[in-house]
Amino acid sequence: MNGSTKSFHNKNNVFKNNLNTNLINPLNHENTIITNQDTIFYPDTKKMLIENNENNNKTQIKEKNKENKDYDFQNKNKYIIYFLDFIIDKISKKNLIESLKETLCLQQDISLPNLFYIFDTSKNEKIKKENFIEICNKLKLFPTEDQIYLLYKKYDLDNDDILNYEDFCHMILPLKDEYLSIIKNRQDNMEGFSEISKESNIILKELIKAFIQVESYFYELKNTLKLNNFSCKETWDLITHYSSNDDKLSKIEFKIFLEDNNTFLTQFEIDLIFNDMDLDNNGIINFSDFERELII
Predict the structure, then answer these.
(1) Which of 87, 85, 80, 100 lies closest to 273, judged by CA?
(2) Residues 138 and 100 in one domain
């Protein structure tokens, strides 16, 4: 064996021995091979490893930022979830009221002037709270002052503490045209509470009872939203992303918002919810309408 071959084998043995060591890393020697069991780090690779570590750190930071953004989005999105839950809950309660309104409209002894006459016990073309309570008591319903307050807060459109004829119609009339036409066209041939049939009395009682219970129920629901730090303004801002006008929302835009958030309602249900917020019946809702619906 010549000298060069022997030198090669000696170097090869040194290399193999180095593979079995934990770490060989002479200080500041650029030509040293760093090994750790089966892994070999060549000097030219060292810089690349550092760069990879830096890139990994940057990737982790980006992922963390994305998580923070996702968290912020989820926080905002929770307002939408609260609102949609509120809407779904409201539909079930409003459907009950609509059903009772429709049933009352079919009663032959019921007309709009007659219904208003029943509650206008002072006969001055306005229904004060004490008038409403008087009729409730005759119907064997005994609401609290707080319950009547909530009812008037909902249906007293001009906030004057009375229900005028327009307020009363807004409260009592059903949504569907076929029932509206029946009661609007019926001749007023009855006068006074005593003239209403027993069957109509029962239906009217159930309707007023439903009004009182539903408004009390939604007061508690609104209070729950408040306790969960629900932001009406942030929710409105999220919803009006679907609007061509940030200050207003049309019925079709409201429908698009619902469907884009996987809430699919019938047209009647959309009309029911939208019209309930659209107090001046102009086909749009603004932030004031929206806030009134959700804030105590």
Answers:
(1) 87
(2) yes
